[in-house]
Amino acid sequence: MTVTSPPRSVGGWSNVESFILIPPDPTTRDEIVFVAVVKNIGNGAAEPSKLSVRVGGESAPPKYNVPGLGPGERFSVQRSLKLTSALSYIAEARADAENVVQESNEGSNTKTLSFPVKP
């Protein structure tokens, strides 16, 4: 996955730097681990915030605490679950899920994955 950074802001700016799943080719028998890495790409400190990890059509995905991050600092979040239906899924990691961090570009807050779960 290639990440290109938008212009830096004056304050803290949290974005989802990477979002992966392990194993990369899951089956209905696997415990799938989703790993999202949030990075402050701003020049100042970013406030504590929440990161959500939505899988499939979840209407209320779980939210995870992200501590305040200094410039360049990262924080990773893991979510594990078993998907028992062999289907194609979309997963989404969203930084600053409650919009508490003031940013000049909210577009870098989300990364998505499309993946099949095989029988």
Keywords:
0% helix, 119 residues, 43% strand, mainly beta, Immunoglobulin-like, disordered N terminus, 4-stranded antiparallel β-sheet
Can you offer a commentary on this structure?
Strand 3 and strand 4 (63-66) form a beta hairpin. The protein contains no helices and 7 strands. The chain is mostly beta strands and 119 residues long. Mean pLDDT is 87; it is low at 1-10. It has strands at 14-22, 32-40, 49-55, 63-66, 74-81, 88-94, 110-116. The chain has one domain (14-102, 109-116): Immunoglobulin-like (Sandwich), CATH 2.60.40.10. A 4-stranded antiparallel sheet has the order 4-3-6-7, with no helix packed on it. The chain is 0% helix and 43% strand.
Q: Topology, pairings included?
A:
Layout: E1 14-22, E2 32-40, E3 49-55, E4 63-66, E5 74-81, E6 88-94, E7 110-116
Antiparallel strand pairs: 1-2, 2-5, 3-4, 3-6, 6-7
Structural class: mainly beta
Helix content: under 10%
Q: Over all CA atoms, what is the radius of gyration?
A: 15 Å
CATH homology superfamily: Immunoglobulins
Write down the secondary-structure element order.
Answer: EEEEEEE
Extract low-pLDDT stretches: 1-10
Q: Give the biggest sheet.
A: 4 strands, antiparallel
For the terminal residues, how far apart are their CA atoms?
A: 26 Å
- Count every beta strand, where a strand is a DSSP E run of 2 or more residues: 7
- Quote the beta fraction: 35-45%
Mean pLDDT: 87
Outline of the structure:
This protein is an all-beta fold. It has strands at residues 14-22, 32-40, 49-55, 63-66, 74-81, 88-94, 110-116.
